[in-house]
Structures are given as C-alpha cells and as structure tokens.
Design goal:
With 386 residues, the protein is an alpha/beta fold. The chain contains 12 helices and 13 strands. The two termini are 43 Å apart.
C-alpha cells in the first residue's frame, strides 16, 4: 500500500530543534529578542536590504506597511485578481478599496497594461504579488509607480528564492513582505517579515509593530501612536535562524522538484508550468500545471484523479472578485478579468515538499499523464463518431 502524498510539509532538522530548545531554555528577560534580532539581521543579509522586522504573519507585515503609507478611506490599492485573501484583507481593514486587475497568461502575475489602465487620482499603492514563486514584471510596475507617484509594494510571501536580474524578490518595491507559514520554503510555523530600504518607513513600521511605542521613547509603557501587536516570538525566530542557515539547500530543492516535473511532462503540448523567463530565477515554491482549454480538462477532473491516487490536490487561487464579499467589484461593464477567472478552472498545484522521493514524483507525474491519456482517447473516440 502506498503512502499518501501531501502537497507540502516543512523540512525541519536537528539544527532548528536545537535552536528552538535553546530559545525556550535561555531566551527570556534580557535575551528575549536575541533570536529575533539575529533572524532579522540574517534575512537582511540574504535579501540585500537595509531593514527587516520579523512579524507574526505576512498579513500583519502587509497591514503595518500599508498603514505606514497612510492608506485609508477613499484610497484605492491595485492588486492582482489572482491572490489569496490575505493580500486584500489589510486593504479592507484600513478602509481603502482593493482594485482587482487581470493577470498575465504565462506568469499568472499582475498585467502591467491593466494596472496602468486602472490608475486613478485615488490610487495609493500597487501590490505586486509574486504568485507560486513566479515573478511580476517589476521593471514595468516600478516605472508605472514612478510615473504616477504611486508606491509599488511586493507581496513576496511565495517568492523566497526568486530573483530578477540579480535582485531578490521582495527587495525592489517600497517595501516587501514574506511568509514563514508551515507551507513555505522557509518556515517558522507561523510568521512573516517586513523589509524595506526606506529608513523613515522602517522606523514608522517598527513603532506600529510595538503597540505604537517609538524606539527612542524613554517613558515606560508610553505609546506614541495607536499601533499593532504583530511581533514574532523568540522561539519562532530561533527556528527561522536554523532555516536561514539552510536556505540555499531549501530553495535549490524546490527548484529541482519543478525541474523534474517539467522533464517528466515535457513534449506534451497544451500544458504549462511555472515559467522562468530570461534574467529571472524562479524559487518554485509551488509547482503548478495549467492546461490549455483545448484539452477540456477541468480543476474538478484533476482533483478527482489526484484523490483516486491518494495525492493531495491544491486548487489554483480563486479570483478574489469571485468571492461574495467583493461582488460589487466583480466586473466592469460585464467584462471579467479573463485570465484570472479562466486559469483556475484548468489548473492544479503539485506536491513539492523537500523530501519527496523519486517514486513520489513519478506518482504525481503519472497521475497527470494517465489523465491526459484518458482525455486523449475520449477526444479521438468522439472525433471518430463525427
């Protein structure tokens, strides 16, 4: 009997456990921030940025960053319709309006042409989400932001290990955010990171992250503004320190898995996996396969096939505009975001945890190949009857 193949799980070794135990044993009192400070410092060095703030989640990092930019009622924030709700929720919490635009058919990221078309005098920011490790066209988006005086933010929750022309995802915008959820390439169980090269923005977010208490404030328990409580624990940061020591190994394995899938599915027309365009490195957090409409294969077909093979099937993100809370923003003149609505209906995320065996990878690939063969036979049979 074969074991179930999960879509993801973390890679935790004795190193991370040793650091976590040390944090539990000694990381209190004057040492309660030791691993947090180390985690932030090491992350800055890896990413090539000046400032980092460890947070309880990527969502919290995004919330504080937007708040520090004074995003609020009457403002609009542009983002891809293909997104997890965590990217849109902070915008709504701040009283601003999320504006959903379509995605490119190959990277599944923001379409810069559609971004420019949706810029208005109320646009306060553009959130560039690097989906599944795929990269936004940052050159185009940054140019749009500069032309219109709008901040470009990187949601790099899924893009650790990805880079464009030598610049790591998350390091190019006004600020970047990362996730260390248990599903991510580098994990702290739960957790996130805010990064920036803007000293003033860093200080404001640092204050917001500690209930509004400014770093230079000498009065005890004296908040200088209303802030948040989005801090990471020292124990979580200890795990993160161990993970960062292994980051090249962890990201390389993710890339290897995507490469193996591409090799096993090569030569089949009408399917696409995470792209890696010239000048880019795809961190391959979540290998994803998208079928052309000509195959007639649906997300439901894929889920059934994987379920039968005892393999976890994770669906492509639903367009945010399809959710009931965003019904009013669903379309303009009955024109939906075509790619954001079409691609999820014929796509699936593939398992990609670090210790997948060759047999595991073969099972996943063969499940897809078998499904393709069945649909090919059915298509030929129907064509023969005409």
């Amino acid at each position: 009997m074969t074991a179930r193949i999960f879509y993801t799980k973390p890679s935790i070794t004795e190193l991370e456990m040793r650091y976590a135990v040390d944090a539990v044993a000694t990381g209190w009192g004057a040492k309660c921030y030791d691993y947090i400070n180390r985690f932030e410092r090491t992350f800055c060095e890896h990413l090539g940025v000046r400032y980092a703030i460890a947070t309880s989640s990527c969502t919290g990092a995004m919330h504080m960053g937007l708040a520090a930019l004074d995003v609020g009622p009457g403002d609009e924030v542009i983002l891809a319709d293909t997104n997890w709700i965590a990217t849109a929720a902070p915008i709504v919490h701040l009283g601003a309006t999320p504006v959903f635009v379509d995605i490119l058919p190959d990277t599944w990221c923001l379409d810069p042409v559609q971004v420019e078309r949706h810029i208005t005098p109320r646009t306060k920011a553009i959130v560039a989400t690097h989906i599944y490790g795929n990269l936004c066209d940052m050159e185009a988006l940054l140019a749009i932001g500069e032309r219109h005086g709008v901040a470009v933010i990187e949601d790099a929750a899924e893009a650790l290990g990805s880079a464009i022309n030598g610049r790591r995802a998350g390091s190019m915008g006004r600020f970047g955010t990362f996730s260390f959820h248990g599903t991510k390439t580098v994990t702290t169980g739960e957790g996130g990171m805010f990064v920036t090269n803007d000293a003033d923005l860093y200080e404001r977010v640092l204050t917001l992250s500690n209930h509004g208490r400014a770093r230079g404030q000498t009065r005890q328990f004296w908040p200088d503004m209303i802030g948040f409580k989005y801090k990471m624990s020292n124990v979580q940061a200890a795990i993160g320190c161990g993970q960062l020591e292994r980051i090249e190994e962890l990201t390389a394995r993710k890339r290897d898995i995507l490469k193996i899938y591409k090799a096993k599915l090569s030569g089949i027309s009408g399917i696409a996996l995470n792209p890696e365009h010239e000048g880019t490195v795809n961190g391959a957090w979540m290998p994803t396969v998208v079928f052309s409409e000509t195959w007639g294969i649906t997300s439901e077909d894929l889920q059934k096939a994987f379920h039968a093979a005892d393999i976890d099937a994770r669906v492509f993100f639903h367009p945010l505009s399809s959710l009931p809370m965003f019904e009013e923003q669903r379309h303009e003149g009955n024109v939906y975001n075509v790619n954001a609505w079409s691609i999820p209906q014929r796509a699936i995320n593939l398992p990609s945890y670090h210790d997948m065996t060759e047999d595991d990878l073969n099972r996943v690939a063969n499940t897809l190949l078998d499904l393709l063969a069945v649909h090919d036979r059915q298509s030929r049979s129907v064509a023969g009857k005409k």
